[in-house]
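Weekly puzzle thread! Below is a chain. First person to post its structure in token form gets bragging rights.
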Amino acid sequence: MPAALVVLFTSLFLGLQPITTDLYLPALPSMTQALGASMPQAQLTLSALLLFFGISQLIWGPVSDKYGRKPVLLAGLSLYALASLGSAFSANVESLIIWRALQGAAMGAPVMCARAMARDLYAPEEAARLMSKGLSGLGVIAILCVPVGSLISTYLGWRFAFAALGSFAALSLALVLLKFDETNQRRNPAALQPAILISTWRSILAHPQFWTYALLALTSYCGLFVFLATSSFVYLKVLGQSKWVYSAVMVGMSSFYVLGTFASRRVLAKHGVQHMVWIGGWITLTACVMYGAALLLAPSSVIALAVCQYVFMVGHGFHQPAGQSGSAAAFPKAAGAASAMAGFLMMVSAFATGAVLGETMDGSVRPMVLGVMFWAVMILLVAWILVQRHGKLSKT
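Winning reply:
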């Protein structure tokens, strides 16, 4: 495939994740009220999706190593479209949670394939550049999600937000059928044999470079997840802002993330992955200190809280391309399995974070701010210690 088409597919597949999590955020309070759901149940519509998203990748990854990326993409996108329609027609919060879990399981296929494709086609540092471009595309998609979600939820209702997810999946499915060329030219016929699969996972989990970059992606994503899981309640309920103010905050957040991915590519081209992550750590530290100051001095300031998150997102744009590509860098023949394991660990951690948030939301901004600060500290430990010790990537 032409390089531009590879970037487009990478952006679409990765972009399915923010579409799935962000598009319905403006509708979350009204959806919770309409279904008579509690706060923990509302959080479960997001955290259950992420749990099954993580678990499913452990299946999708080895399947794609054996049969190729394209069959997995076709199956996953078809199932995702079905689950989106099921979510739209849910009669109660319990059925919505089930459909969202199925939607998360289906989402694992395209997101895992996007990460594995980078290693299929490129050497590790080139894969990081491709991932950065794909994540820039993800950021552009994320910029549109909340404003579009606000329009849909305001004028059409929360059910149409889920219908929109199904439409995006259907369009992506059509594009895969027409334009996607298989990227996995190193298929492993034995990838699904239990003994081989266990041996592969053992080798992945024993590799320090895998843990280094998987933890980088995990900690950075969990910091973002805290904001995603709490921001609609904080801005709309606690701070009493309109959906349009909240949309503006989210657009700014995604815009600064895109800015981070562009800046990270320039650093990567000149200094390599380890230095890129080192600089990203300083940006994350700045965001952490700013959040602490905002909590003490201006906890009710929309602008102060938004600016803190914007700085965090610039750092996120440095850490995610390195983490998502680096976790599979050492496994060219098992890129699917390595990408899947990294995704599984990331989503299990996000699910646990969501469970904690569901029990600690107290009607203030504190759970959101302290949650982001906690994960910022974890990012720093990984970026400044593990990546500097174990993060050197090979040239092939």
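Puzzle host: Confirmed. Bonus trivia for everyone else. Residues 124-155 form the longest helix (32 residues).
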